[in-house]
């Protein structure tokens, strides 16, 4: 898939298409708002993803991730939903189709759904600055750099805190451990660190509106295990997310 994307990117015609998208967007912004095309947005539109920047240990960004990212930015700069939708549909079908095995009709439908969700749910644009999941270009002179860096740090700290709060180590019998004369490590202790990372990733994906079945697939593809070392399933993820929600609502 990546080879296909690379070949398409090198095609002069495809480069013209990307330039057209940027020109159209720039003209759009001039007409509708005094908004800026931030470095990450400009790069995504003109160059797409840079695979060499991605960590082999992290889930690879998908077409959905890019669509969410751009749609949230459109809303952030106060561009109306219908205009966002009309711009995003050709961009996703022409620029992002190489990243997906879905038919163009499915991509169009999915793009409409994501845009509708972003605007209806008032999803904020939180790029993550240099920690953005797309590993798009980020400059410290970007007007949002400090704000987004701080928000990312707060989000990571809060997600880690929530997951750790609802984690309770198994109760151990000190006498049995002493009699065995060997250190005892419970399953929860063995998998705790990676479980915290898995739940932080899952919570982030849920915030973006990604379907649970896709989150489960990505968790299993990346080798994440549940708190007891099991393979993830939709029912397990739903249960764990419910615990996180209940814990976060505690006084």
Task: Provide the descriptors you would attach to this structure in a database record.
mainly alpha, 0% strand, 2 domains, globular, 11 helices, 251 residues
Task: Explain what the structure shows.
The protein is mainly α and 251 residues long. It is globular and about 60 Å long. The chain has two domains: 2-131, no CATH class; 150-248, no CATH class. It has eleven helices and no strands. The model is unreliable at 1-15 (pLDDT under 50).
Uncertain runs with pLDDT below 50, 5 residues or more? Answer: 1-15
Share of helix, binned? 55-70%
E-strand count:
0
Query: Averaged pLDDT, please?
Result: 78
Whole-number count of domains: 2
Number of helices: 11
Q: Compute the gyration radius: what is it? A: 21 Å
* N/C terminus separation: 48 Å
Q: Which strand-content bin applies to the residues?
A: under 5%
What profile does the largest beta sheet have?
A: none
What order do the SSEs take from the amino end to the carboxyl end, as H and E? HHHHHHHHHHH
Give the overall shape, derived from the CA principal axes: globular
* Category by helix and strand content: mainly alpha
